[in-house]
Design a protein that fits this description.
Layout lengths: L1 H34 L2 E3 L6 E3 L3 H6 L3 H32 L8 H9 L6 H11 L6 H8 L13 H29 L3 H9 L4 H12 L1 H17 L2 H6 L11 H11 L3 H30 L1
Antiparallel strand pairs: 1-2
Helix pairs in contact: 1-13, 3-7, 3-10, 4-7, 10-13, 12-13
Length: 293
Amino acid sequence: MNLYRNKKIAFFFMFPALLIILVFIYYPILENFIYSLYRWSSFSSQKEYIGLENYRRLFQDPVFYQALKNNLLYCIVSIIFQVGLGLVIAAVLEEKGFRRFQPFFRSIYFMPSVISITVIGLLFQLIYHPTIGLLNQSLIAVGLKSLTRAWIGEKQTAMYAVIAVSQWQSIGYIMLLFLVAIQKIPEGIYESAVIDGANGWQKFWYITVPQVRGTIVLSSILTIIGGFKVFDEVYVMTAGGPGRATEVLASFLYRSGFRNDEMGYASSIATVIFIITFLITLLQLKTTEKQEG
């Protein structure tokens, strides 16, 4: 009887949160899929049912594949720098010789994470400026004028320039996640490894990495989802240009829905973004469960 009563009490406390999740997360996802089956405009109350036509059109659109390619590139680079380099920086800051300086470097690395992306976008527009930008002026100052270019004005470099901004902004946040995880590792494990003759690299690879595997999975999932949802940097810096060189799925969705007023088509893009991120998350979680099992 007490067990049944405890379950009722637990459900009573969980119900408000569950209701919020259902109303503001799951219902909009379902409604978005329903909207993707129609051709409709935000300026009209009329909706024309067209079934899966929006999806057929989407998978035949070359811009979709260009945007998907850019999102995949975003994810790959972010995993390498945000997760990989963030883990390395956290491990270095946790070394005994660096711990006294850790608060300073922790603040320096994390500070970009709290700056508005609009401010950052405008700042890097100036840095990348072909004539007065800090990057080109620095290259000229060290005798590398041949490397100067319009970084966000050329198709070959624009996407990489935008991606670099995200790495600079987000690496500090991922680094903090790893710092917390590393600090939970018992110091005795490292001391035993040193007694056995392990060097710094061996301690990192055979102790730190396995011990923070859960954080690696979590940060990887957050990074990949962020890579597929990225919008602000692209919109502020290039708006998807030059041409469609920096178009990503979110900017493609925005252009389709709010510029071209094809709301059903935009809903189909949103559904695809959700499915991709959902499947990647499931895959990573299943892979981790197998490794831990």
